[in-house]
Amino acid sequence: MKNMIPFLIAIICFILVILEGTLSLINVSLFADDWMIVSHFMFLFLIYVTIYFEKITTFYAIALSIIFSLIVDIVYTDVIGVYVFAYTLVLYIIRVFMKVLQSNFLIAMLMTVFGVITTDILIFFLYNIIQIHQLSWEFYWHNRLIPSGVWNLIAGLFIYIAFAKRLQKWSFIKFERSD
């Protein structure tokens, strides 16, 4: 079991990448027509991997971020590297924050909000720099950032409930238990 844990985390990331694409195809008629809701399920899971699974000397979340955000870039976007850069940079920043913060529910939710908002803004600015889209800041703020932030916070709560304790247990099994 000890050696299988990183592969289980990778399989969960893969399933969440597929789920992101599947849910993006579903037209959400409950919301306003001009809202653009972007799911970051895999990224949310990797935030919790960073908070609850990682040790000081391991970089599983960063490695998985590079691999699976490259898949997101190849499959779902036109520009390769934007999600790789944004996800990896923000996960590294969260990792640095977690060196001085305690791992609890409140900090996990604050890191979720920080991670999703920072990632989305970073992706927005990168797409504006390379001129993929020409959205105004006001339109983006009102129609994408806030709806996506709320959607991903709700999804983050579900992912937290499903995986936080399990990741702590897997961390204990992988790094502290002597078999």
TrEMBL record:
InterPro entries: Cell_shape_determining_MreD (IPR007227). The chain crosses the membrane at residues 34-51, 58-76, 82-98, 105-130, 150-167. Keywords: Cell membrane, Cell shape, Membrane, Transmembrane, Transmembrane helix. It is a multi-pass membrane protein. Pfam families: MreD. The keyword Membrane applies. One of its GO terms (cellular component) is plasma membrane. The keyword Magnesium does not apply. It comes from the Bacteria. GO terms for biological process: regulation of cell shape. It is found in: Cell membrane. NCBIfam families: shape_MreD (TIGR03426). Belongs to the MreD family. This is Rod shape-determining protein MreD. It comes from Gracilibacillus kekensis.
